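[recover] target loaded
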């Protein structure tokens, strides 16, 4: 990694750390909110430039391996937080997004940062689309579940900037579920192209299917059972572990073809 890339990477880490600390500053202290918003904007900018430079340098989207996937998920969280700054009831999304971004970057640091040559099966637009749908599903659901956790833990606090309406929650869950479905569909389609079958009961596929069914139940509860706000928040919080597991379980199971952190074999 060049000095320029290292500078961008650590600038992103520093901004995420500052924003994560600002998230715990009481809202009545205005400087905390301002610092968090600025840190979110800076982290988004530096992370965007870093990933773009890496993409140009390696010749493919930076979505292969845990290191790159953690950074891609971090970028999606940051972009989502910036996008929500214009929505008054969701302006404080950065308060939950940046701590998660810090966790993801810390997780990614445990793995090899050096890019590896892609195999023929990885050089496909289907893989890129599959990953894009994955992060478009993961980020909104993670954020919404985290907002629910914050509001349940601190019921008496003033969370005007973290108070999605019933309609907003329904839209977020619905959109994320569509992306989750699209992720599964593109994954099964490319699986058929590679192996001649639309499904395999591997750990990644099984966990993802279970999580997809669980969120399908949530969507059904919102649309047809008119779940109360409190009940919905508890369910969204309880689904955070299977959500994270479904999107990162592949990084700890080298036996699956979703595993990309294969040690590089060098000629020396």
């Amino acid at each position: 990694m060049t000095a320029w890339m290292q500078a961008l990477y650590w600038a992103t880490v520093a901004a995420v750390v500052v924003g994560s600390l600002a998230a715990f500053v009481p809202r009545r202290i205005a400087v905390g909110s301002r610092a968090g918003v600025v840190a979110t904007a800076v982290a988004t900018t530096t992370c965007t430039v870093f990933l773009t430079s890496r993409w140009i340098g390696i010749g493919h989207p930076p979505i292969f391996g845990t290191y790159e996937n953690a950074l891609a998920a971090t970028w999606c969280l940051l972009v989502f937080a910036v996008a929500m700054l214009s929505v008054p009831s969701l302006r404080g999304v950065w308060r939950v997004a940046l701590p998660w971004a810090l966790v993801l970057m810390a997780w990614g640091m445990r793995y090899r940062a050096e890019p590896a040559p892609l195999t023929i099966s990885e050089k496909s637009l289907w893989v890129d689309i599959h990953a894009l749908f994955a992060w478009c599903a993961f980020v909104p659901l993670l954020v919404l579940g985290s907002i629910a956790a914050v509001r349940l833990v601190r019921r008496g606090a003033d969370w005007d900037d973290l108070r999605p309406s019933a309609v907003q929650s329904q839209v977020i869950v619905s959109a994320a579920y569509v992306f989750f479905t699209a992720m599964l569909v593109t994954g099964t389609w490319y699986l058929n192209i590679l192996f001649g079958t639309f499904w395999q009961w591997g750990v990644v596929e099984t966990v993802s299917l279970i999580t997809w069914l669980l969120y399908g139940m949530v969507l059904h509860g919102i649309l047809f059972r008119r779940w109360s706000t409190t009940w919905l928040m508890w369910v969204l919080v309880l689904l955070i572990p299977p959500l994270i597991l479904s999107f990162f379980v592949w990084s700890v199971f080298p036996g699956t073809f979703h595993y990309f952190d294969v040690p590089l074999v060098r000629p020396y």
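[recover] notes: Confidence is low (pLDDT under 50) at residues 264-268.
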